[in-house]
Amino acid sequence: MAIDHLDGRIILLLAREPRIGVLEMSRRLGVARGTAQARLDRLQSNGVIRGFGPQVDPAALGYPVTAFATLQIRQGQGADVRAHLATVPEVLELHTTTGTGDMLCRLVARSNADLQRVIDRVVGFDGIVRASTAIVMENPVPLRIIPLVEQASLGE
Amino acid sequence: MAIDHLDGRIILLLAREPRIGVLEMSRRLGVARGTAQARLDRLQSNGVIRGFGPQVDPAALGYPVTAFATLQIRQGQGADVRAHLATVPEVLELHTTTGTGDMLCRLVARSNADLQRVIDRVVGFDGIVRASTAIVMENPVPLRIIPLVEQASLGE
DNA sequence: GTACGCCTGCACATGTTGCCCAGTGATCAG
DNA sequence: CTGATCACTGGGCAACATGTGCAGGCGTAC
Questions:
Q1: Contacts of B138 in chain A (CB under 8 A)
Q2: pLDDT digit string (tens) for B12-64?
Q3: Which of A57, B15, B56, B83 could be disulfide-bonded to A145 (CB atoms 3.0-4.6 Å)?
Q4: Is B74 left (phi over 0), alpha (psi -120 to 50) or beta?
Q5: A95 and B140: CB-CB below 8 Å?
């Protein structure tokens, strides 16, 4: 479950140069190819590395506007709302949370005007009582994992 | 900038089987290898595909708790706060937003108790006036891009 | 009609993968 | 101490993929 230092280096290396092969990886790490391969396999079957899917930039796809919407759900409608939101392509992510809202979702849109359409589509559903939206202006820290990997592979 | 149907199929294919090679890809798509290669190169230099970094699961690293914190910042302290948050490994993502809060950040922690430590570290900084945190219970829609790619590659 | 971009199909040298093996050193139970 | 297990090394092999280059077809824009 926890990862050791070599695992950490593997992940960092892959993060920096994702298209690297196992052989090149083993050379950089100074271990035998079999070792690198075994470690990588283990990380994947452990679920530490979930995959190597392409990281697609919504902005480059024509969706430069990101927003977060906090939703309040009518009692007992959670499952319906989840199913509804899953059908909206502009909903990139959905969490159920504690706190003032019941759900938090990440949206994208083609423009601020288009965001209105997306929000209408998201909110135009019976189980949603209230929604409050925050439009993202800047993204000073894009989704990252490397500092955490470093932390995890040092401490353990 | 916009992507066509073939680009869309390339991304979908890569999302499903990320470790696929260009040759295999061209076979599946029914195009020449050079074409697949050229398209892939273009998608990457366009920035549509930002990379193929490993998708690491924080839970598998020992950080099973996720939370979102909304921060209110003292006027003019934005840059300092951003720099501060960038140094905290448990801050996976940071956005500046319109709306009630000024910033929204995604946090992870080793446990609910550990979340307190993380929040203290995040909030224990002069420019932050107020923070409200929502702990994630479930994640019915994990970060996804495929429906959007489908939409974008059909419509254009 | 001509230049251009995009695609096809082919070829080559080189590098990589998946798979096999034998051997070493550390750890641990009996 | 003995034997078992495990992770790692280092090597070898056939099959396959990659980067690259090139000639030619086809539709579009001007």
A1: 95-96
A2: 999 999 889 999 999 999 999 999 999 999 999 989 999 999 999 999 999 99
A3: B56
A4: beta
A5: yes
Kindly determine whether residue B52 and residue A53, on different chains, have CB atoms separated by under 8 Å: yes
SS3 for B131?
strand
DSSP letter for B57, please: -
Question: Which pTM does this prediction carry?
Answer: 0.90
Which residue do the tokens 């970094």 mark? B53
Q: Is B93 left (phi over 0), alpha (psi -120 to 50) or beta?
A: beta
Distance CA A138, CA B5 (A): 30
A5-54: CATH architecture: Orthogonal Bundle (1.10)
Distance CA A97, CA A70 (A): 10
- A105 interface with B at CB cutoff 8 Å: yes
Q: Where in chain A is the domain with CATH 1.10.10.10?
A: 5-54
Architecture of domain B58-135 in CATH?
Answer: 2-Layer Sandwich (3.30)
Kindly report, as residue ranges, where domains of CATH 3.30.70.920 are found in chain A. 58-135
- Interface test mutation site (partner B, options A56, A66, A153, max chain B beta carbons within 10 A): A56
